């Protein structure tokens, strides 16, 4: 049985169909990619799953449960974590504080939560920066903190919105290792990513959307060789010279 | 029946200058996304400027506009450039920096109390050729200065909307109000836009000053009387909306003139607050505000 | 600040102890009731600002109508005392409860609003309460007395049960104790899960929600606690002055002053309100006493200037640089200046 099912989900803003009847299903333990040109509706779909928006139509089924329209904090309690494209650390607080907020979901005891947070921070190589204020971190560290904080909520599934944007190539490689590591802990990953090389190398399955509609889904190999995708996405990118990371 | 129509007329007349007073506030909010708490004090400065010009020259208060409007424009322009801009620069990433609310409150305290120290607490009136005049339209009495105020409000609102819609500067202001970063990427000098928006807001405060001089007292804390009222009006109408400010003003004016028919007049103030909170809870964006701003 | 040397710690503890002893023994050697009154008002404002800070600081919004809850506290306990002879010591809890209920009731719709709208709606609410009280002469069996305000009937001598004392000293200790308790509550609260959630939601609501925080709920909770504690301060003010009226105790100026103190001291910090009150209250009291006849309003001009300067150069408040200075001083005195700046 699929862990997450998105069934015919649409999200309209006024007359704009940001997401239009998208269906996909993610198996437990997968790394699942969601790609598409800018403005295709990827983040909107994410926000529907994460509870930030209620879908206009359609259903979101998690672990056999209809969770359509649930609030973000209830979604989080279902053990779905998420990271934001533009990272949102609690700037004036320490790295440990940030992670502890996440860890509080399993316990109301502060020292337990801090221990758990510390454990996660070490895994993300942030252990020695636990006392640093979040606003003083580098971009790469902020992205890592964003992931660590989400992992501190002990999720079964992680929604990651462009966690590699703006990173240097070696940092991208590091992040890919981190993703594999997260998966090896049994966490299913659903990610949006613009860096083709990255998403192609790590994903088990990919869905491509454009103008809010699903074009296709398949393995990275299938996607990369599909006419429609090349035309809609890769072709356009080459043509416009936009997403300069299409090197795969 | 005639009596009630008279009441309505009075309410609309009063409401129009409330709306005018709120217009500058809503314009500035539209651009900077922050409430200018010094707005009442800018009104006070406008009133004192108008007062002294009329008093010293003996001009018709509407002739004084020629001096008051540019003076207040410069005042607002400078105020934004010197005091508020540094905050906006340092809080570049924040969409609505609370610090600006605080700084403008500081400006409010300074201006009001400087006026108190310089001019004293007394209530001042200056006799003008308009003061106390009335005219009869059919069976209805209309106070001439209020009618002038009504017309001025409509003209100002019209000019302001025209300016925002059709001039290059007006379009820059609207662009900056949609997204200040994007606007600055498109070559709009956002801080200059803010300066000008603030200048226009202050200039409108100057117009209010000239409108009020024939029938209102001038004193250092006169701004506070209008402050809370203006805040309520702009939220009623929708923060950032010029027609909203006008209609919000008319609503408050009507409430203040109609409700005393049914209850002690001191209660009407409460009615205004209740209506305000009710609107805020039911439709937080106000009558004409954009949804994303609340 | 990784210097955990015992010498440094000892000096730190000793300095803090000395400060505590100093503060608690002031009435022993300071006999001037005027100065004692200034100190009492200073502590009261520190107390009220600390309670304001629960919402205004940690929840990240800007309430500008907290005088409403001060007023609710003062009016409730006083009216109960006059009409039913209930001791203010009991009446203050009734006032606190009413304030908490009102705060929650008003917080549920308003705390969902964005910054400017929240600030304005609290301000309108505060003003609404003032107008309401000014227009109420009698509420059932209770005399409210409209704009003229209420006097607490003066009882002869010291009367512990009636919360009335002839000397300022008991008031000094009461408010000092209240301040200590409320600081402790804030400190303790900020280390619990709700405290973390509140601060997280105040800083980045979307991120907090994604971490499982029902942000609005914690803000309402904070509002309830804040209003409850604020009202207790209201009762104290009523008992201290024995006379109050709507324009004073429910006024906009009062609400604004609380916000100013917190902002200048350091919003969302535990020491901020105390530091802010320590800096601003004496300025306002002294200029009011010595300059109000020659230069009315000067203290408010100074307020305004300080506010602007702090926001321009130290937007997080003055606690931060003071803390840095204190740590530097500790390092200096314990001879640990060798650590390299990272």
Shape of chain C: globular
Low-confidence stretches of chain C: none
What is the ordering of alpha helices and beta strands of chain B?
HHHHEEHHHHHHH
Report, as a whole number of angstroms, the end-to-end distance of chain C: 11 Å
Give the number of helices of chain B: 11
Instruction: Profile the largest sheet of chain B.
Output: 2 strands, antiparallel
User: What would the principal axes of the Cα set say about the shape of chain B?
Assistant: globular
Structure description:
The complex is a heterotrimer of chains A (248), B (294) and C (342). Chain A is of the alpha/beta class and 248 residues long. In chain A, 38% of the residues lie in helices and 24% in strands. Chain A has helices at 42-50, 72-77, 95-103, 110-123, 139-151, 169-184, 196-202, 220-224, 227-240, and strands at 4-13, 16-26, 31-35, 57-62, 65-66, 80-83, 157-161, 188-192, 205-210, 213-218. In chain A, the strands form 2 sheets. In chain A, strands 6-7-8-3-9-10 form a 6-stranded mixed sheet, with helices on both faces. A 4-stranded antiparallel sheet of chain A has the order 2-1-4-5, with helices on one face. In chain A, helix 3 (95-103) crosses helix 4 (110-123), helix 3 (95-103) runs parallel beside helix 5 and helix 4 packs across helix 5. Chain B has a two-stranded antiparallel ribbon with strand order 1-2. Chain B has 11 helices and 2 strands; from the N terminus they run H-H-H-H-E-E-H-H-H-H-H-H-H. Chain B is globular, with a radius of gyration of 19 Å. Chain B has helices at residues 2-32, 39-57, 65-90, 98-119, 144-166, 168-178, 180-185, 190-212, 222-237, 242-258, 266-282, and strands spanning 134-137, 140-143. Helices cover 72% and strands 3% of the residues of chain B. Chain B has one domain (16-225). In chain C, strand 1 and strand 2 form a beta hairpin. Chain C has one domain. By secondary structure, chain C is mainly alpha-helical. In chain C, the strands form 2 sheets. Chain C has a two-stranded antiparallel sheet. A two-stranded antiparallel sheet of chain C has the order 3-4. The radius of gyration of chain C is 21 Å and the shape is globular. Chain C has 14 helices and 4 strands. The chains are: A alpha/beta (248), B mainly alpha (294), C mainly alpha (342). Chains in contact: A-C, B-C. At the B-C interface, helix 3, helix 4, helix 9 and helix 11 of B face helix 5, helix 11 and helix 13 of C.
């Amino acid at each position: 049985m699929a862990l997450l099912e998105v069934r015919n989900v649409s999200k309209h803003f006024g007359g704009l169909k940001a997401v239009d009847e998208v269906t996909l299903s993610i198996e437990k333990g997968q790394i699942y990619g969601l790609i598409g040109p800018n403005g295709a509706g990827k983040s909107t779909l994410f926000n529907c799953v994460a509870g930030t928006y209620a879908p206009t139509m359609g259903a979101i089924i998690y672990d056999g449960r209809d969770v359509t329209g649930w609030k973000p904090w209830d979604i989080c309690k279902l053990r779905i974590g998420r990271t934001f494209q533009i990272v949102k650390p609690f700037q004036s607080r320490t790295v440990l504080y940030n992670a502890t907020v996440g860890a509080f979901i399993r316990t109301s005891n502060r020292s337990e939560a801090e221990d758990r947070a510390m454990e996660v921070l070490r895994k993300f190589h942030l252990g020695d920066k636990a006392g640093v204020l979040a606003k003083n971190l580098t971009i790469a560290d902020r992205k890592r903190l964003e992931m660590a904080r989400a992992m501190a909520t002990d999720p079964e599934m992680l929604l990651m919105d462009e966690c590699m944007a703006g990173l240097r190539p070696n940092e991208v490689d590091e992040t890919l290792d981190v993703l594999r590591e997260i998966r090896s802990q049994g966490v299913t990953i659903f990610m949006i990513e613009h860096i083709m090389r990255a998403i192609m190398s790590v994903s088990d399955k990919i869905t491509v959307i454009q103008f809010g509609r699903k074009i296709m889904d398949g393995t990275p190999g299938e996607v990369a060789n599909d006419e429609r995708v090349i035309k809609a996405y890769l072709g356009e990118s080459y043509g416009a010279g936009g997403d300069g990371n299409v090197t795969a | 029946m005639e009596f009630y129509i008279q009441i309505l007329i009075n309410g609309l007349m009063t409401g129009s200058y409330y709306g005018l007073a709120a217009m500058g506030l809503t314009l500035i909010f539209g651009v900077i996304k922050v409430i200018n708490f010094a707005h009442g004090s800018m009104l006070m400065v406008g009133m004192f400027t108008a007062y002294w010009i009329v008093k010293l020259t003996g001009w018709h208060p509407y002739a004084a506009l020629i001096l008051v409007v540019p003076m207040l424009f410069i005042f607002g322009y400078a105020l934004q450039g010197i005091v508020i801009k540094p905050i906006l620069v340092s809080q570049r990433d924040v969409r609505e920096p609370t610090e600006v609310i605080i700084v403008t409150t500081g400006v409010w305290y300074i201006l009001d109390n400087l006026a108190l120290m310089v001019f004293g607490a007394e209530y001042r009136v200056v006799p003008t050729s308009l003061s106390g005049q009335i005219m009869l339209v059919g069976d209805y009495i209309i106070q001439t200065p209020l009618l002038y105020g009504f017309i001025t409000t409509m003209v100002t609102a019209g000019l302001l909307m025209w300016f925002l819609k059709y001039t290059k500067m007006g379009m820059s202001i609207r662009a900056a109000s949609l997204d200040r970063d994007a606007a600055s990427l498109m070559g709009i000098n956002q801080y200059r836009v803010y300066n000008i928006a603030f200048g226009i807001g202050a200039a409108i405060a100057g117009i209010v000053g000239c409108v009020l001089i024939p029938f209102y007292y001038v004193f250092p804390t006169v701004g506070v009387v209008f402050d809370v009222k203006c805040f309520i009006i702009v939220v009623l109408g929708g923060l950032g909306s010029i027609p909203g400010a006008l209609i919000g003003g008319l609503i408050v004016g009507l409430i203040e003139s109609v409700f005393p028919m049914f209850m002690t007049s001191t209660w009407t103030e409460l009615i205004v607050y209740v209506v305000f909170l009710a609107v805020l809870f039911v439709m937080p964006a106000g009558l004409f505000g954009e949804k994303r701003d609340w | 600040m990784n210097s955990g040397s015992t010498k440094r710690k000892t000096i730190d503890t000793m300095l803090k102890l000395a400060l505590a002893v100093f503060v608690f023994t002031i009435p022993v050697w300071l006999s001037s009731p005027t100065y004692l009154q200034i100190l009492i008002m200073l502590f009261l404002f520190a107390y009220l600002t600390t309670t304001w800070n629960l919402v205004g600081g940690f929840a990240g919004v800007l309430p500008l109508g907290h005088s409403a809850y001060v007023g609710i506290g003062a009016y409730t306990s006083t009216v109960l005392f006059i009409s039913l002879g209930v001791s203010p010591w009991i009446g203050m809890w009734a006032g606190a409860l009413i304030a908490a209920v009102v705060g929650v009731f008003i917080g549920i719709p308003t705390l969902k609003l964005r910054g400017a709208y929240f600030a304005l709606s609290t301000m309108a609410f505060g003003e609404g309460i003032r107008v309401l009280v000014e227009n109420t002469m009698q509420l059932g069996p209770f005399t409210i007395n409209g704009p003229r305000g209420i006097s607490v009937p003066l009882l002869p001598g010291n009367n512990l049960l009636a919360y009335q004392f002839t000397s300022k000293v008991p008031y000094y200790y009461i408010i000092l104790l209240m301040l200590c308790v409320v600081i402790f509550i804030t400190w303790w609260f900020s280390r619990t899960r709700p405290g973390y959630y509140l601060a997280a939601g105040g800083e980045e609501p979307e991120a907090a929600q994604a971490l499982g925080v029902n942000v609005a709920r914690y803000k309402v909770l904070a509002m309830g606690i804040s209003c409850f504690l604020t009202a207790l301060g209201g009762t104290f003010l009523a008992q201290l002055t024995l006379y109050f009226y709507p324009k004073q105790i429910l006024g906009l100026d009062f609400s604004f002053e609380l916000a100013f103190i917190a902002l200048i001291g350091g919003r969302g910090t535990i020491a901020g309100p105390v530091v802010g009150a320590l800096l601003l209250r004496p300025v306002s009291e002294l200029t009011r006493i010595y300059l109000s006849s020659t230069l009315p309003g000067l203290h408010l001009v100074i307020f305004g200037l300080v506010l602007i300067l702090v926001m321009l150069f130290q937007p997080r408040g003055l606690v931060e640089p003071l803390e840095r200075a204190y740590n530097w001083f500790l390092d200096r005195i314990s001879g640990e200046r060798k650590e390299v700046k990272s």
